[in-house]
Design brief:
Elements: H1 3-28, H2 42-65, H3 75-106, H4 115-118, H5 125-151, H6 157-185, H7 194-225, H8 230-236, H9 241-263, H10 266-269, H11 275-282, E1 311-318, E2 326-332, E3 335-343, H12 349-364, E4 373-379, E5 382-388, H13 394-400, H14 407-426, E6 439-441, E7 447-449, H15 455-465, H16 476-480, H17 491-507, H18 520-526, H19 539-548, H20 558-567
Antiparallel strand pairs: 1-2, 2-3, 3-5, 4-5, 6-7
Helix pairs in contact: 1-2, 1-9, 2-3, 3-5, 3-6, 3-7, 6-7, 7-8, 7-9, 12-15, 14-17, 14-20, 17-19
Length: 573
């Protein structure tokens, strides 16, 4: 069989391979409607991948079925062959940008000054996008000029192959060094959550596969360009015909199709879509507590920042002394919501950037078991948070309604609250000021947790609006700290608060009701005061409470508390 016949077989095989790849891409990108607003720009990456596979499929199909053999060395055919490679580097650039974004997002709560990253990632998305677009335009402009020179016969076809070989090696080296720099920069910085750790691990692995693909193609390019190399001899001389076909297919599989496969894997795509949409398909361990719903169960909002004209305020809901703003019932696009308004005298630009980051993060943290947060209205100097309409609080149920709860129902309620906190801690999320005020009870006394996060917003409200979230449920460590708000929540703070809440549910009493507010800090921190354990408390319950209120170095973790309350039976001696 002659060489042209081998070329036909190769091109036909490649056309079939990329047809299957294109179909796979179209099938796997059917989740575009579920993309998280934070990552909607990731659609551009996937669109570029689809376009690249389509052009590659079309090119090989035309070569196999439509273009005469004698025309395959023409310059416009070389352009057609290389356009997908040009698009691949755009995809590579977008993927590197996503990795940079994930690095910053994963550690956003740690108050680390990363001046280099701040130029590229949140909160300066506009600047980052401009840089990305400038690089893409520069690359397209350069390649457009090269193609024009090729078509006008100013340069030879080999120039394209040599150029891509150099770009493969240089781009792979640059991305590899940049990835090593990011890992070194954050090596001692904790993650926001285990999920963020896993997301970063997945994305870094994908970027490494793309980088190894660039190196593989680059080194093979060098060998092919050298006529004395083993690879060149294998391709052009004395090799079996089937060997040439296999080599061509393996090159495409390793350098491109493998790269497409890993970014179309569900574990990668799910980083950028609504996580509870994915959980709806997988099942959720919390389904017994709260039915899983889409991330924005009320309104499909285009942005975390909502225009004030979209909100119709109805009437005051409640206002607590030193509370976190005023709460109103309101309508948002036909749905009833709660509108928490904080009226500041002023908000600096620097502080506003921090608050916007917290708003974006809290929208991402929505899952069943938390009161749903939908976004915010920023109408400076007012900042208003929009959350789902809440059921009554555990505090209201116990102390205002004076509800009578059976021991069996108390036991179930305690278990469900501990299960919720266990899930929060498993995600690396800590409340810091958990109390019966921010545990809401749905129908059947199923708990929801509210008031999670917004540490910086709450800190600013504490300074300017006299807000405080330190109270009788706060751990000694929280009460000991200066300031009126919890600055950095820790798991031990939640454990102490759980002990207070368990005691509160069992007794029906308000913790430390007899202690004056101004004396609370001294009594709890200095004198080690804890709620009185009644003689009728079961031994298992007493053990749990003592472990929750132990000094911080001996205090139990949530796994221990949950294990004990699951086995605990509230039987009166």
């Amino acid at each position: 069989m002659s060489n042209p016949d081998i070329n036909e077989i190769t091109e036909l095989s490649q056309a079939l391979l990329y047809t299957l790849t294109f179909g796979f891409c179209m099938y796997k990108t059917n989740k575009f409607n579920y993309f998280d607003r934070e990552w909607k720009h990731t659609k551009l990456f996937y669109i570029s991948v689809i376009v690249q596979t389509f052009i590659r499929m079309t090119s090989f199909s035309l070569l196999a079925f439509a273009i005469p053999k004698n025309d395959r060395d023409l310059s416009y055919i070389s352009v057609m062959r290389s356009v997908p490679d040009t698009l691949f580097y755009i995809n590579y650039l977008l993927l590197a940008y996503q990795t940079m974004n994930i690095f910053y997002h994963s550690h956003i709560n740690n108050n680390v000054r990363v001046t280099f990253l701040l130029h590229f990632t949140r909160p300066k998305f506009r600047k980052a996008r401009k840089i990305i677009w400038l690089l893409i335009i520069a690359w397209l402009g350069t390649m457009g000029l090269i193609y024009a020179l090729l078509i006008t016969n100013k340069i030879e076809n080999e120039f394209i192959d040599t150029g891509f070989t150099i770009v493969n090696l240089l781009s792979g080296t640059f991305v590899l060094l940049f990835l090593m720099y990011l890992h070194a920069k954050y090596s001692e910085t904790p993650f926001k959550s285990q999920q963020d750790r896993q997301n970063l691990k997945i994305l870094s692995g994908v970027l490494m596969i793309w980088t190894m693909g660039r190196y593989f193609k680059g080194f093979l390019g060098i060998l092919v360009l050298n006529p004395k190399s083993i690879i060149a001899i294998f391709i052009y001389k004395n090799s079996s015909e089937i060997g040439k076909v296999i080599f061509s297919i393996c090159l495409s599989l390793i350098s491109e199709i493998l790269c497409f496969y890993v970014v179309l894997d569900p574990s990668f795509i799910n980083i950028f879509i609504y996580q509870d949409q994915a959980n709806m398909k997988k099942g959720d361990i919390f389904s017994e507590l709260s039915p899983l719903t889409p991330l924005n169960e009320t309104v499909n909002l285009k942005s975390t920042i909502i225009d004030s004209c979209e909100v119709e305020i109805l009437e005051p809901y409640k206002k607590r002394p030193k509370g976190f703003g005023e709460i109103f019932t309101a309508n948002l696009k036909g749905r009833k919501i709660l509108y928490r308004k904080l009226s500041f005298p002023r908000v600096s630009g620097y502080k506003l950037e921090d608050i916007k980051l917290e708003i974006e993060d809290m929208v991402r943290q929505n899952f069943s078991g938390l009161v749903t947060f939908h976004g915010a209205v920023i109408d400076l100097p007012e900042i208003s948070l929009i959350i789902s309409e809440m059921p009554k609080s555990l505090y209201k149920h116990l102390h205002e309604d004076k509800a009578i709860i059976s021991l069996k129902d108390k036991n179930t309620l305690i278990q469900n609250i501990c299960r919720l906190v266990k899930r929060l801690h498993g995600l690396g999320l800590y409340h810091g000021h958990l109390s019966s005020h921010n545990i809401m009870l749905k129908e059947g006394n199923k708990p929801l947790i509210s008031d999670l996060g917004f540490e910086k917003l709450k800190e600013y409200a504490g300074i300017v609006l006299n807000y405080t979230n330190k109270n009788s449920w706060s751990s000694p460590e929280v009460l000991f700290e200066t300031g009126s708000t919890v600055l950095k929540a820790k798991p031990s703070d939640d454990i102490y608060s759980i002990g207070i809440i368990i005691w509160e549910i069992i007794t029906g009493n308000i913790p430390f009701e007899e202690v004056d507010e101004k004396d609370l800090r001294e009594m709890v921190v200095s004198k080690g005061l804890t709620p009185k354990i009644a003689v009728y408390f079961p031994k298992d319950l007493v053990k749990v409470l003592k472990m929750c209120w132990a000094p911080i170095e001996k205090r139990a973790g949530i796994d221990y508390v949950y294990e004990k309350v699951i086995k605990m039976k509230l039987v009166v001696d």
